[in-house]
Amino acid sequence: MPRFFFHIRDENGCITDHNxxxxxxxxxxxxxxxxxxxxxxxxxxxxxxxEIRSIEITDEEYHRVxxxxxx
Length: 71
What we know:
Largest sheet: 5 strands, antiparallel
Strand content: 35-45%
């Protein structure tokens, strides 16, 4: 099963995911990123959450496979 990494981009740069998740395919990774974005909005203060611009999904070799905008 492939491993995907979810890096959070904000106006100051990138918070790198060093652990990743084993998921069956890119569709599952996309769903996981959407769920993570939802959790960010629920868990963080509005001021912090609104600075997050996107979640960048990379594969095991850290090649970007998708960018999920966070609004």
